[in-house]
Amino acid sequence: MVPIRTLILAAAASTVLAGTALAEDDGKAGLPYSAGGLLAPCMEADNDARWGSYAETECEQYISGFVDALQLAGMTGRGHDICLPELNLPDEIRWAFMRYVNEDYDRRHLPAGAVLLDTLKAKFACSAQEASTGQ
């Protein structure tokens, strides 16, 4: 029997490895869900008074599921590359993701999972948090 952690890691790895193929759309035609596809509802959350709450839910639910998988697989926290914020987690990551994609807009063509993982490593690196708290 294969341990659940191995299955989760395999699923996450296949999502990230699929990132070698550029994806312009958001899952149509069999292409991976792109960072641009995720960026749209993340940004819409702040731009649309009427439908923004629905867009925010779509964006933050994707982020929450991704983060939950990383946490369940034991890939976050001290001794790892990613130390997640303690407060307002989905919103903090949403903002970091939007900034990260907009820093290099070509990232919007890559799979959302790969760019989200890169965002977490770049914006929530454990070494930076440990240095700022003196740990």
TrEMBL record:
Record key words, sorted: Signal
Give start-end of the signal peptide.
1-23
- Give the InterPro entries listed for this entry: Rap1a (IPR041238)
The chain positions of domain Rap1a immunity protein read 35-126
Record's keyword annotation contains Signal:
yes
- Name of the protein in question: Rap1a immunity protein domain-containing protein
Q: Which organism is it from?
A: Rhodobium gokarnense
